[in-house]
Amino acid sequence: MATAEPEIKANSSRPEADGAEESGQEIVSPESYIKHPLQNRWALWFFKNDKTKTWQTNLRFISNFDTVEDFWALYNHIHLSSNLCSGCDYSVFKDGIEPMWEDERNKRGGRWLVTLTKQQRRLDLDRFWLETLLCLIGEAFDDYSDDVCGAVVNVRTKGDKIAVWTADYENREAVTHIGRVYKERLGLPIKLTIGYQSHVDTATKCGSTTKNRYVV
Fold first, then answer.
1. Count of H helices and E strands in the chain?
2. Hey, how many other C-beta atoms are within 10 angstroms of the C-beta on 66?
3. Distance (Å, rounded) from C-alpha 169 to C-alpha 41?
4. Which pick of 60, 116, 139, 151 has the fewest CB atoms within 10 Å?
5. Helices (H), the chain
6. pLDDT per residue over 152-201, tens digit each?
7. C-beta neighbour count of 115 within 10 angstroms
8. Is the pTM of this model over 0.85?
9. Which residue, among 198, 133, 134, has the nearest Cα to 166 in the 3D structure?
């Protein structure tokens, strides 16, 4: 049985509606084509661990975005983190900042690190990563959002990691505020602590772990 399409009635009291109807043109609300700008321009990077190439060669710039609509168009076009091969990373950083310790905006900074179990790849990884991105592009860290450089998700066999990078590990007030907000936005249990590591400590560590400068 055929279903009739819903009838759309034109508002005949509006002169422009009559004109549009006569010319066969559809009136489009400005809201439908004006994009919503973000406060910052961001860049998406992809890293694939090919041991025959250098680290820099394995890191590939994908695209910039600076509106809400362009972010979702890009996010919906790429693979979810949970579907990446082990050894791959996504990085989203403010435009002009490369996702590496050596970048001028990163080298005095550090990262809030969330480590996931193998089981959490299926349960939490994609949700945590999306929430991380929304924190970044939505400037969720109040007056300290300027201290955020970007974020990285590492897909690894032993356990995935997500990190928010900040510009200055010595800025205790900014770093701890960002950590508290981030932990709350991820919905992590109060009793579960996450740590902040400086890039300097990570680069010069002797063992397999890096000491935490701060915890929340």
1. 7, 8
2. 16
3. 23
4. 60
5. 15-23, 55-58, 68-75, 120, 126-137, 172-186, 199-204
6. 999 999 999 999 999 999 999 999 999 999 999 999 999 999 999 999 99
7. 15
8. no
9. 198
